[in-house]
Specification:
By secondary structure, this protein is an alpha+beta fold. Helices cover 19% and strands 39% of the residues. Belongs to the calycin superfamily. Lipocalin family.
Length: 216
């Protein structure tokens, strides 16, 4: 199988689903994707840790990415919660919420974040490989003009570390992309937990200062 290579060095940076939205731009039109047939919606729900994503050096350094899918009462849409931490001397936590709608009985969905924002856009999201219990590979693509398209891909896991039993199938599912395009997400439990605590502590301190100022 031919490995995809970048045709132009244009990188876009977004923080959208299912993790940090890293898009690589290539020459041509969006390829056809095959979503998982007979998709089991109930088994798909729950927490997924991002293991790696398509990315380049210019992209925002988001780690500790955790995505949760929860079905709505109508049964045809899913609430999506996306949390991540930008690590560093002053870690910042980012959380986004949106929803997804199934387009058919396969693992093809359409997603939107910040639906109250007029500029928010819908985008297709294909679950191409999953066993529901350990791993998931998902892709998204958009034709940006007549000659180039932007493609995103993610490897997700039910645990912070991809089980060794899933490595071979994930490698095969992502072999069309050069391995150098992928960035491994830092999911160190201690680091991610301490970063979240630091961010929450900062928010608590800020609220306390605001309260003190208000009471003066």
């Amino acid at each position: 199988m031919q490995i995809k290579m970048l045709s132009i060095l244009v990188i876009n940076t977004f923080l959208i689903v299912p993790g940090a939205f890293a898009t690589i731009y290539m020459e041509g039109r969006c390829p056809g994707y095959t979503a998982v047939p007979g998709f089991n919606r109930n088994q798909f729900l729950g927490d997924w840790y991002e293991i790696k994503r398509l990315e380049a050096d210019e992209l925002l350094n988001a780690d500790c990415v955790l995505v949760n899918y929860k079905t709505n009462v109508d049964g045809s849409t899913v609430d999506v919660s996306n949390r991540m931490v930008v690590l560093g001397n002053t870690p910042s936590r980012i959380e986004q919420r949106g929803y997804a709608r199934y387009l058919d009985t396969s693992g093809r969905l359409v997603m939107i974040y910040n639906e109250t924002d007029p500029s928010a856009r819908l985008f297709d999201y294909y679950v191409t490989h999953t066993d529901y219990q350990t791993y998931m590979v998902a892709v998204s693509c958009e034709n940006v003009n007549n000659s180039h398209y932007g493609e995103s891909a993610w490897v997700m896991s039910r645990t912070r570390i991809l089980p060794t039993t899933a490595v071979a199938v994930v490698n095969q599912a992502t072999q069309q992309w050069s391995a150098g395009f992928f960035r491994t997400t830092n999911q160190d439990e201690v680091l991610c937990s301490s970063s979240r605590q630091l961010v929450l502590a900062s928010i608590t301190l800020l609220m306390g200062l605001v309260t003190i100022h208000f009471l003066r």
